[in-house]
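Practice problem 4.
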């Protein structure tokens, strides 16, 4: 079942990994969503952005940490990392590579997963 804000672009079975790759495109923004449908106890999510550097200041890495420093909705310092102590997550991190930044997490508990997704 597809969310009404997205269009299914392609669906492909990857037998070697026992999963199906589904690619969706958001109607308004054009954002891509890749869904890996697999028989796995983990509920996982990763959002990633291209952060191609313009210089060697490391601004993408600084912004990676700044993005995790709270918001109007979560007015505490580092709400994401405070969740590390209170969450049932099986993986949670943030990382910056040479030209992208990503925020992945996973939990085997669906309620915990959606709490993390909300943050």
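Answer key:
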């Amino acid at each position: 079942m597809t969310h009404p804000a997205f269009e299914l672009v392609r669906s492909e079975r990857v037998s070697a990994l026992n999963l199906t790759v589904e690619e969706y495109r958001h109607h308004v923004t054009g954002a891509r969503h890749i869904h890996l449908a697999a028989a796995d106890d983990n509920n996982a999510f990763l959002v990633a952005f291209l952060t191609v550097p313009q210089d060697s200041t490391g601004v993408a890495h600084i912004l990676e940490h700044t993005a995790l420093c709270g918001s109007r909705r979560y007015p505490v310092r580092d709400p994401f990392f405070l969740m590390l102590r209170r969450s049932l997550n099986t993986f949670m991190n943030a990382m910056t590579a040479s030209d992208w930044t990503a925020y992945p997490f996973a939990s085997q508990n669906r309620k915990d997963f959606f709490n993390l997704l909300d943050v």
